[in-house]
């Protein structure tokens, strides 16, 4: 030992002057100065926003102690450089946690100084962001490399062929780059990799590399091959392959079809096969059972459409099996219990029926089970009993969402000691949430939303829990919630419990034990005071306390508290006060409160803004024209039903992102400014203001417009012909209650997508265009799957539409996509009712009342099979009522009054069900009016003078009663329909659901 000490001291004496230093803690490791300098040069070209490489400093002499740097214990050379960022946080993590992760991602470019690390064998730059730059070709000169991982690092361009020089490489991963890498025609550069064991080229475009199978099969040492999402659409099934060492094959997310390539079944050494996300059809091939070493098989997201094959469950060596997202049918066979080695079993998103077989009790190694999105029906207690017998001590994840499970959650749930994820949402489970849930200390994620759970929440859960995500929304839970319920939930990050009837009145000094990122308590009763405990949630990103019975002035601390929030919904309460500034990102919903004052300033990244049904006042100028916080990204702005006044300012150009604008029901005056028309709207509502003038020509720029509602204003002039030319996708056009005059332009007939046309209460003249038969959306039955009126923005309702149907003003929301109506009432239209209108077989409401139309009701009016409401009253129509009218089985409102119709009312259950006021003011006979058709109907000219005064008096009384009935009917109908819509957000949330998909479809057609 003494000799070794003398040798060691001599070694220090000799090498100390060279500048080589010993690394602290390990006297055998030294830091090479040239490599230290190379690392510093590398750092200079790296953008490190989180200062992750802070240890890499000129003052830090010992580079072997720098983050991600590993040195050889003897030579001191850097042999490993691992600079991948920390693992990404879970999806329900806070914005702060996500922010830390995103900032930890390195950016910039790769400095050639890495060439000085001539002993480097391991280089990992994965999961960073190099902005689409090329993979440096000089990496091909680092001949010592055995491990190279550049995956998911946002490289772009062509793979440099110089990488083929790395003859010692055992591990190569350049997959997952979002900027697609393009290898032109071949993979011949792989030929030099005689030692390569792992190859991942996922998301590299190999559509032109027809030699991919031949070249990869030549790699003698290859054990893992990952070619996911490589645009492989060829099937080289006739090619002889020789993957002698291959154990893992990943060909997922390609275009392989229609059957599994037969060469795969000759790879008897395969342990794992991933063929998910292709286009395989028919029966699952039985040849898989020939691969006796197989432990993992993923055939998910294909189109296999048979029943589950019995032979599949004879593969008792399988540990992982996924057949999710196929078209598999029938029952789960009892033979599933033969999978004695299975750890993960995923049959989700199929069409499987029946119950879980009792043979599942045999799967003693089961860790993860996913049968979600099927048609299974079983009592939940039976399901838990089966799983308890098989694997209560091992089961980690259970997903049975979106089936037909019933029954109750039993205390047996508390015996699943290893359970981390439990998802039972979208079933018909009833009863209480068991207190024994608190025994599952490992539980991190539970979703039992959208069931029929009832009763109270437990006063407390038995033990402290690790629960981070809890979703109990959309159930029938009721009663008061105690503070004790939350006492065990100290790790809670997401709490979703909306759409229940729960009440929570915390003490004013209550401090929650958790720090949540998401809290959703819509339809709880939290009031009447504003809940003060919210101010202790420092990581809060999403808050929904809408419809929560809060009637209070919002405290000033709350507006300062919102700076971290991405989504805020406090709508449908009775909140008051003025708002100085809204420091919320993305979505703000303040609808249906009592907020007053001027419109508050918002952050530039807000996308969705609901201010409707409040008492905001003043002009729009300060909100729009004086904005100086950056380029606004606002997509939706709803200001409907406030006290806004003054002219619409002409300063819309900075607000280029707005596509949905609703400023109806205010006191806005003046003309529509030209700049408003440059925004490219999808929906524009200016209804019920005091706007004047004509429509600006700049609106012609809005070629994507789906809805234009400028009703109940003071616009004048002719209806612009360019409306029919410019808006090919228009679904709703309402010009109601203005002063438009002239003829209805034929160009409106080009609006083939139009479902709602309302031109009522104007000064229009001329005849009804016969070309209205070209409105093809009215000629077919409305299809909810193609509707563009239903639309969501971050799950939020945009607006309803007021329509005059069945003689009443009605507000439509959830079924608006299924409505087709034409209203030309109360104008000066003349001529006949065009027979061409009877071609609009999908029309549900037709209102032509209050005009000067003459002639007969079209004989084939009964061809409009879907008609529910017909009003042609107060015209000069003559002749008899067409027999075909009795064929309208859906007709529930009919008004033919005050015309010159004569003769017998056709006999049908439908027509006789209406009262006599539907026919009054004509010369008709038969039920339901009292006139007997056996008598000759008398015209007004033949009425005797002796009774004239009496009949005149009776006629006056009759008309008076009609007016009274209409007024009462209007009030009852109006509030009977609109009242529930104000109170029920679930109805409102159905509006505009599918327009984004249709918009994309239409855009693709145009391109």
| Euclidean distance between termini CA atoms | 82 Å
Overall, the morphology is: globular
Mean pLDDT: 85
Residue stretches low in confidence (pLDDT < 50, at least 5 long) are 1-27, 784-803, 808-816, 936-1007
CATH class of the domain at 122-235: Alpha Beta
Percentage of β-strand residues: 15-25%
CATH homologous superfamily placement of the domain at 122-235: Ribonuclease Inhibitor
Q: Cα-atom Rg, whole angstroms?
A: 36 Å
SS-based structural class?
alpha/beta
What is the number of strand segments?
A: 66
- Return the CATH topology of the domain at 122-235: Leucine-rich repeat, LRR (right-handed beta-alpha superhelix)
**What is the CATH architecture descriptor of the domain at 122-235?**
Alpha-Beta Horseshoe
Subcellular location: Cell membrane
Keywords: Cell membrane, Glycoprotein, Leucine-rich repeat, Membrane, Receptor, Repeat, Signal, Transmembrane, Transmembrane helix
Transmembrane segments: 960-983
Domain Leucine-rich repeat-containing N-terminal plant-type: 33-72
């Amino acid at each position: 030992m003494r000799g070794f000490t003398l040798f060691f001291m001599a070694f220090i004496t000799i090498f100390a002057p060279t500048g080589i230093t010993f690394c602290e803690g390990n006297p055998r490791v030294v830091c090479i100065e040239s490599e230290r300098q190379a690392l510093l040069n590398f750092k200079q070209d790296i953008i490190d926003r989180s200062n992750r490489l802070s240890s890499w400093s000129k003052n830090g002499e010992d580079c072997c102690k720098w983050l991600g740097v590993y040195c050889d214990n003897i030579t001191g050379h850097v042999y490993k450089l691992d600079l991948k960022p920390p693992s990404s946080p879970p999806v329900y993590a806070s914005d702060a946690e996500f922010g830390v992760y995103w900032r930890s991602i390195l950016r910039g470019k790769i400095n050639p100084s890495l060439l000085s690390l001539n002993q480097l064998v391991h280089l990992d730059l994965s999961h960073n962001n190099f902005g689409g730059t090329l993979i440096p070709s000089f990496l091909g000169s680092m001949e010592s490399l055995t491990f190279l991982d550049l995956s998911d690092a946002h490289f772009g361009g062509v793979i440099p062929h110089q990488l083929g020089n790395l003859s010692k490489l055992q591990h190569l991963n350049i997959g997952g780059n979002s900027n697609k890498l393009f290898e032109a025609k071949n993979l011949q550069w792989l030929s030099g990799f005689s030692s390569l064991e792992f190859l991942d080229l996922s998301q590299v475009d190999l559509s032109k590399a027809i030699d991919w199978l031949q070249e990869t099969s030549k790699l003698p040492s290859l054990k893992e091959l990952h070619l996911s999402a490589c645009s492989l659409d060829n099937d080289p099934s006739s090619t002889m392959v020789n993957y002698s060492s291959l154990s893992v094959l990943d060909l997922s997310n390609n275009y392989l079809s229609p059957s599994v390539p037969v060469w795969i079944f000759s790879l008897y050494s395969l342990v794992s096969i991933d063929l998910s996300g292709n286009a395989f059809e028919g029966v699952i091939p039985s040849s898989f059972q020939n691969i006796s070493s197989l432990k993992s098989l993923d055939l998910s997201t294909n189109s296999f459409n048979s029943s589950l094959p019995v032979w599949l469950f004879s593969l008792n060596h399988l540990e992982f099996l996924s057949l999710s997202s196929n078209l598999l049918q029938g029952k789960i066979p009892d033979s599933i219990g033969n999978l004695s080695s299975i750890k993960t079993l995923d049959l989700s998103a199929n069409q499987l029926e029946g119950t879980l077989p009792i043979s599942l009790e045999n799967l003693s190694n089961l860790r993860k089970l996913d049968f979600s999105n099927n048609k299974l029906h079983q009592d939940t207690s039976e399901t838990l009993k089966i799983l308890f017998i098989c694997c209560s001590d091992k089961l980690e994840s259970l997903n049975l969402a979106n089936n037909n499970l019933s029954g109750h959650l039993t205390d047996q749930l508390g015996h699943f000691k290893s359970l981390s994820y439990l998802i039972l949402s979208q079933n018909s489970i009833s009863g209480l949430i068991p207190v024994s849930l608190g025994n599952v200390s490992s539980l991190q994620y539970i979703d039992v939303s959208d069931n029929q759970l009832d009763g109270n929440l437990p006063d407390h859960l038995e033990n402290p829990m690790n629960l981070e995500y809890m979703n109990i929304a959309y159930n029938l839970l009721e009663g008061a919630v105690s503070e004790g319920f939350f006492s065990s939930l100290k790790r809670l990050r997401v709490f979703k419990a909306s759409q229940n009837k729960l009440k929570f009145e915390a003490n004013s000094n209550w401090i929650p034990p958790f720090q949540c990122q998401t809290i959703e308590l819509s339809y709880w009763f939290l009031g009447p005071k504003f809940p003060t405990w919210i101010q202790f949630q420092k990581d809060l990103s999403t808050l929904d306390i809408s419809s929560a019975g809060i009637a209070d002035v919002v405290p000033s601390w709350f507006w300062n508290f919102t700076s971290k929030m991405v989504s805020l919904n406090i709508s449908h309460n009775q909140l008051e006060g003025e708002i100085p500034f809204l420091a919320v990102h993305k979505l703000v919903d303040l609808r249906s409160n009592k907020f007053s004052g001027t419109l508050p300033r918002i952050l530039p990244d807000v996308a969705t803004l609901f201010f409707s049904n409040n008492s905001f006042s003043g002009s729009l100028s300060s909100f729009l024209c004086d904005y100086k916080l950056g380029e606004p990204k606002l997509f939706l702005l709803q200001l409907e039903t406030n006290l806004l006044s003054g002219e619409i300012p002409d300063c819309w150009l900075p607000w280029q992102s707005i596509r949905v604008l609703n400023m109806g029901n205010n006191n806005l005056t003046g003309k529509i400014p030209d700049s408003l028309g440059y925004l490219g709207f999808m929906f524009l509502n200016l209804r019920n203001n005091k706007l004047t003038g004509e429509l600006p020509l700049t609106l012609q720029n809005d070629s994507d417009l789906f809805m234009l509602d400028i009703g109940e204003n003071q616009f004048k002039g002719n209806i612009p012909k360019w409306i029919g030319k410019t808006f090919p996708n228009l679904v709703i056009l309402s010009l109601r209650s203005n002063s438009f005059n002239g003829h209805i332009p034929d160009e409106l007939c080009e609006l083939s997508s139009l479902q709602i046309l309302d031109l009522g209460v104007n000064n229009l003249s001329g005849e009804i265009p016969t070309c209205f038969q070209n409105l093809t959306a009215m000629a077919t039955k409305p299809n909810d799957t193609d509707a563009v009126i239903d639309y969501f923005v971050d799950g939020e309702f945009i607006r309803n539409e007021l329509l005059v149907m069945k003689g009443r003003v009605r507000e439509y929301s959830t079924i608006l996509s299924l409505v087709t109506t034409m209203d030309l009432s109360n104008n000066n239209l003349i001529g006949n009712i065009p027979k061409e209108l009877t071609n609009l077989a999908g029309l549900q409401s037709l209102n032509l009342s209050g005009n000067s139309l003459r002639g007969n009701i079209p004989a084939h009016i009964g061809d409009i099979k879907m008609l529910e409401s017909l009003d042609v009253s107060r015209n000069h129509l003559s002749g008899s009522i067409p027999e075909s009218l009795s064929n309208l089985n859906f007709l529930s409102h009919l008004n033919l009054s005050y015309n010159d119709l004569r003769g017998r009312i056709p006999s049908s259950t439908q027509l006789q069900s209406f009262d006599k006021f539907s026919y009054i003011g004509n010369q008709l006979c038969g039920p339901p009016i009292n006139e007997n058709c056996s008598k000759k109907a008398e015209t007004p000219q033949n009425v005797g003078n002796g009774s004239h005064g009496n009949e005149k008096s009776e006629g006056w009384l009759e008309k008076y009663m009609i007016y009274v009935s209409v007024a009462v009917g209007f009030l009852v109908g109006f509030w009977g329909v609109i009242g529930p819509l104000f109170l029920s957000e679930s109805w409102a949330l159905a509006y505009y659901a599918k327009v984004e998909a249709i918009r994309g479809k239409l855009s693709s057609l145009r391109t």
